[in-house]
Amino acid sequence: MDLDFQISKREKLSDQLYGQLLEKIVSGELKEGYKLPSENEISRAFNVSRPVIREALLRLQADGLVYSRQGAGSFVKARPPESLIKFTSPSDISGLLRCFEARLPLEGAAAALAAQRATEEEVETIRKTLVAMEEAMEKGEIADKADFDFHMAIANATGNEFYVSILGTLHTAMRSGMRVALNITKAGSKQRMRKVQEEHRTIYDAISLGDVTAADLAMRYHIQSARTRLMNHQRDI
Protein backbone atom coordinates (compact mmCIF):
# COMPACT_ATOMS: atom_id res chain seq x y z
CA MET A 1 0.00 0.00 0.00
CA ASP A 2 1.16 3.52 -0.82
CA LEU A 3 2.12 5.28 2.40
CA ASP A 4 2.79 8.67 0.84
CA PHE A 5 1.04 10.74 3.52
CA GLN A 6 1.02 14.53 3.27
CA ILE A 7 0.93 16.83 6.30
CA SER A 8 -0.05 20.45 6.76
CA LYS A 9 0.88 22.60 9.73
CA ARG A 10 -2.51 24.33 9.57
CA GLU A 11 -4.52 21.28 10.58
CA LYS A 12 -4.50 18.98 13.59
CA LEU A 13 -2.14 16.09 12.83
CA SER A 14 -4.43 13.34 14.10
CA ASP A 15 -7.31 14.68 11.97
CA GLN A 16 -5.05 14.74 8.90
CA LEU A 17 -3.92 11.17 9.52
CA TYR A 18 -7.53 10.12 10.16
CA GLY A 19 -8.59 11.77 6.90
CA GLN A 20 -5.84 10.21 4.79
CA LEU A 21 -6.44 6.73 6.18
CA LEU A 22 -10.16 7.32 5.57
CA GLU A 23 -9.45 8.23 1.94
CA LYS A 24 -7.63 4.92 1.47
CA ILE A 25 -10.58 3.05 2.99
CA VAL A 26 -13.17 4.90 0.88
CA SER A 27 -11.18 4.39 -2.33
CA GLY A 28 -10.86 0.67 -1.66
CA GLU A 29 -7.09 0.80 -1.42
CA LEU A 30 -7.67 -0.50 2.09
CA LYS A 31 -10.56 -2.96 1.70
CA GLU A 32 -12.82 -4.35 4.41
CA GLY A 33 -10.87 -6.98 6.33
CA TYR A 34 -7.48 -5.58 5.28
CA LYS A 35 -4.88 -4.91 7.92
CA LEU A 36 -3.75 -1.31 8.38
CA PRO A 37 -0.03 -0.50 8.32
CA SER A 38 1.65 -0.86 11.69
CA GLU A 39 2.21 2.13 13.97
CA ASN A 40 5.91 2.01 13.07
CA GLU A 41 5.17 2.11 9.35
CA ILE A 42 2.71 4.99 9.74
CA SER A 43 5.15 6.86 11.99
CA ARG A 44 7.91 6.64 9.38
CA ALA A 45 5.64 7.57 6.47
CA PHE A 46 3.77 10.40 8.20
CA ASN A 47 6.62 11.55 10.46
CA VAL A 48 4.39 11.82 13.51
CA SER A 49 4.52 10.49 17.06
CA ARG A 50 2.84 7.37 18.42
CA PRO A 51 0.26 9.38 20.45
CA VAL A 52 -0.91 11.11 17.24
CA ILE A 53 -1.25 7.76 15.47
CA ARG A 54 -3.13 6.22 18.38
CA GLU A 55 -5.54 9.17 18.55
CA ALA A 56 -6.34 8.79 14.84
CA LEU A 57 -6.78 5.02 15.15
CA LEU A 58 -9.00 5.37 18.22
CA ARG A 59 -11.22 7.82 16.30
CA LEU A 60 -11.44 5.39 13.38
CA GLN A 61 -12.42 2.67 15.85
CA ALA A 62 -14.99 4.88 17.58
CA ASP A 63 -16.49 5.75 14.20
CA GLY A 64 -16.89 2.07 13.33
CA LEU A 65 -14.40 2.07 10.46
CA VAL A 66 -11.63 -0.10 11.91
CA TYR A 67 -11.27 -2.63 14.70
CA SER A 68 -8.28 -3.80 16.70
CA ARG A 69 -7.17 -7.37 17.40
CA GLN A 70 -4.77 -7.71 20.30
CA GLY A 71 -1.33 -8.59 19.08
CA ALA A 72 -2.40 -8.50 15.43
CA GLY A 73 -3.01 -4.83 14.71
CA SER A 74 -5.88 -2.80 13.27
CA PHE A 75 -8.17 -3.95 10.45
CA VAL A 76 -10.73 -2.22 8.21
CA LYS A 77 -14.27 -2.88 9.42
CA ALA A 78 -16.51 -0.78 7.12
CA ARG A 79 -16.23 1.42 4.04
CA PRO A 80 -18.08 4.76 3.90
CA PRO A 81 -19.76 5.90 0.66
CA GLU A 82 -17.39 7.31 -1.97
CA SER A 83 -19.45 10.51 -2.03
CA LEU A 84 -18.41 11.24 1.58
CA ILE A 85 -15.04 12.66 0.57
CA LYS A 86 -16.57 14.30 -2.51
CA PHE A 87 -18.54 16.75 -0.39
CA THR A 88 -16.01 17.60 2.33
CA SER A 89 -12.32 17.43 3.10
CA PRO A 90 -11.35 14.02 4.57
CA SER A 91 -9.51 15.74 7.43
CA ASP A 92 -12.77 17.49 8.42
CA ILE A 93 -14.79 14.30 8.78
CA SER A 94 -13.54 13.40 12.25
CA GLY A 95 -14.72 16.80 13.50
CA LEU A 96 -18.13 16.39 11.85
CA LEU A 97 -18.56 13.04 13.58
CA ARG A 98 -17.57 14.53 16.94
CA CYS A 99 -20.35 17.07 16.39
CA PHE A 100 -22.88 14.27 15.80
CA GLU A 101 -21.59 12.64 19.00
CA ALA A 102 -22.21 15.81 21.00
CA ARG A 103 -25.60 16.45 19.42
CA LEU A 104 -27.04 13.05 20.32
CA PRO A 105 -27.70 13.57 24.08
CA LEU A 106 -28.05 17.36 23.78
CA GLU A 107 -30.76 17.40 21.14
CA GLY A 108 -32.55 14.39 22.55
CA ALA A 109 -32.99 16.30 25.80
CA ALA A 110 -34.00 19.44 23.89
CA ALA A 111 -36.72 17.59 21.99
CA ALA A 112 -38.05 16.14 25.25
CA LEU A 113 -38.21 19.59 26.85
CA ALA A 114 -39.84 21.04 23.74
CA ALA A 115 -42.53 18.34 23.94
CA GLN A 116 -43.14 19.34 27.55
CA ARG A 117 -42.98 23.14 27.22
CA ALA A 118 -43.62 24.30 23.64
CA THR A 119 -46.37 26.86 23.13
CA GLU A 120 -48.79 26.59 20.19
CA GLU A 121 -46.82 29.30 18.40
CA GLU A 122 -43.55 27.43 18.90
CA VAL A 123 -45.05 24.17 17.65
CA GLU A 124 -46.28 26.03 14.57
CA THR A 125 -42.79 27.44 13.98
CA ILE A 126 -41.33 23.93 14.14
CA ARG A 127 -43.97 22.77 11.65
CA LYS A 128 -43.15 25.60 9.24
CA THR A 129 -39.43 24.79 9.29
CA LEU A 130 -40.28 21.13 8.65
CA VAL A 131 -42.45 22.04 5.65
CA ALA A 132 -39.72 24.34 4.31
CA MET A 133 -37.19 21.52 4.54
CA GLU A 134 -39.52 19.01 2.85
CA GLU A 135 -40.31 21.43 0.02
CA ALA A 136 -36.62 22.20 -0.55
CA MET A 137 -35.76 18.50 -0.69
CA GLU A 138 -38.60 17.81 -3.14
CA LYS A 139 -37.12 20.48 -5.42
CA GLY A 140 -33.74 18.73 -5.29
CA GLU A 141 -32.16 21.44 -3.14
CA ILE A 142 -29.64 20.88 -0.34
CA ALA A 143 -31.86 21.92 2.57
CA ASP A 144 -29.18 22.43 5.22
CA LYS A 145 -30.50 25.87 6.25
CA ALA A 146 -34.07 24.60 6.67
CA ASP A 147 -32.74 21.53 8.49
CA PHE A 148 -30.76 23.69 10.92
CA ASP A 149 -33.77 26.00 11.37
CA PHE A 150 -35.87 22.97 12.35
CA HIS A 151 -33.40 21.94 15.04
CA MET A 152 -33.01 25.52 16.26
CA ALA A 153 -36.80 25.95 16.47
CA ILE A 154 -36.88 22.93 18.77
CA ALA A 155 -34.10 24.43 20.91
CA ASN A 156 -36.11 27.67 21.16
CA ALA A 157 -39.16 25.69 22.25
CA THR A 158 -37.32 24.30 25.29
CA GLY A 159 -37.69 27.65 27.05
CA ASN A 160 -34.02 27.30 28.03
CA GLU A 161 -31.71 29.83 26.38
CA PHE A 162 -28.66 27.62 26.95
CA TYR A 163 -29.88 25.09 24.37
CA VAL A 164 -30.22 27.93 21.87
CA SER A 165 -26.76 29.23 22.75
CA ILE A 166 -25.11 25.80 22.44
CA LEU A 167 -26.71 25.08 19.07
CA GLY A 168 -25.65 28.53 17.94
CA THR A 169 -22.08 27.67 18.89
CA LEU A 170 -22.36 24.42 16.92
CA HIS A 171 -23.91 26.19 13.91
CA THR A 172 -20.97 25.88 11.51
CA ALA A 173 -20.22 22.23 12.33
CA MET A 174 -23.91 21.28 12.29
CA ARG A 175 -24.54 22.96 8.92
CA SER A 176 -21.43 21.29 7.49
CA GLY A 177 -22.53 17.85 8.69
CA MET A 178 -26.07 18.41 7.45
CA ARG A 179 -24.80 19.58 4.06
CA VAL A 180 -22.67 16.47 3.59
CA ALA A 181 -25.44 14.12 4.78
CA LEU A 182 -28.06 15.82 2.58
CA ASN A 183 -25.77 15.72 -0.45
CA ILE A 184 -25.34 11.98 0.07
CA THR A 185 -29.11 11.63 0.51
CA LYS A 186 -29.75 13.60 -2.69
CA ALA A 187 -27.40 11.30 -4.61
CA GLY A 188 -29.18 8.23 -3.20
CA SER A 189 -32.61 6.72 -3.65
CA LYS A 190 -36.03 8.32 -3.22
CA GLN A 191 -36.50 5.89 -0.34
CA ARG A 192 -33.52 7.44 1.43
CA MET A 193 -34.95 10.94 1.01
CA ARG A 194 -38.36 9.84 2.28
CA LYS A 195 -36.67 8.24 5.30
CA VAL A 196 -34.96 11.53 6.20
CA GLN A 197 -38.27 13.39 5.89
CA GLU A 198 -40.09 10.79 7.98
CA GLU A 199 -37.51 11.04 10.77
CA HIS A 200 -38.03 14.81 11.03
CA ARG A 201 -41.81 14.47 10.88
CA THR A 202 -41.75 11.85 13.65
CA ILE A 203 -39.85 14.30 15.86
CA TYR A 204 -42.38 17.04 15.09
CA ASP A 205 -45.35 14.73 15.72
CA ALA A 206 -44.00 13.70 19.14
CA ILE A 207 -43.42 17.33 20.15
CA SER A 208 -46.83 18.48 18.91
CA LEU A 209 -48.48 15.66 20.90
CA GLY A 210 -46.50 16.51 24.02
CA ASP A 211 -44.96 13.03 24.15
CA VAL A 212 -41.70 13.62 26.02
CA THR A 213 -40.27 10.10 25.71
CA ALA A 214 -41.14 9.73 22.04
CA ALA A 215 -39.61 13.12 21.21
CA ASP A 216 -36.33 12.20 22.92
CA LEU A 217 -36.17 8.81 21.20
CA ALA A 218 -37.14 10.19 17.78
CA MET A 219 -34.45 12.85 17.90
CA ARG A 220 -31.76 10.41 19.04
CA TYR A 221 -32.79 7.93 16.36
CA HIS A 222 -32.63 10.63 13.68
CA ILE A 223 -29.16 11.85 14.64
CA GLN A 224 -27.79 8.30 14.88
CA SER A 225 -29.37 7.41 11.53
CA ALA A 226 -27.92 10.53 9.91
CA ARG A 227 -24.49 9.54 11.13
CA THR A 228 -24.96 6.00 9.80
CA ARG A 229 -26.02 7.32 6.39
CA LEU A 230 -22.85 9.39 6.37
CA MET A 231 -20.47 6.55 7.18
CA ASN A 232 -21.79 3.26 5.80
CA HIS A 233 -22.06 2.78 2.04
CA GLN A 234 -24.13 -0.38 2.44
CA ARG A 235 -26.91 1.20 4.47
CA ASP A 236 -29.63 2.84 2.35
CA ILE A 237 -31.49 4.14 5.40
TrEMBL record:
CDD domains: WHTH_GntR (cd07377). SMART domains: FCD, HTH_GNTR. Pfam families: FCD, GntR. The keyword Transcription regulation applies. InterPro entries: GntR_C, TF_FadR/GntR_C, Tscrpt_reg_HTH_GntR, WH-like_DNA-bd_sf, WH_DNA-bd_sf. It comes from the Bacteria. PANTHER family: TRANSCRIPTIONAL REGULATOR, GNTR FAMILY (PTHR43537), UXU OPERON TRANSCRIPTIONAL REGULATOR (PTHR43537:SF5). This is FadR family transcriptional regulator. It comes from Leucothrix pacifica.
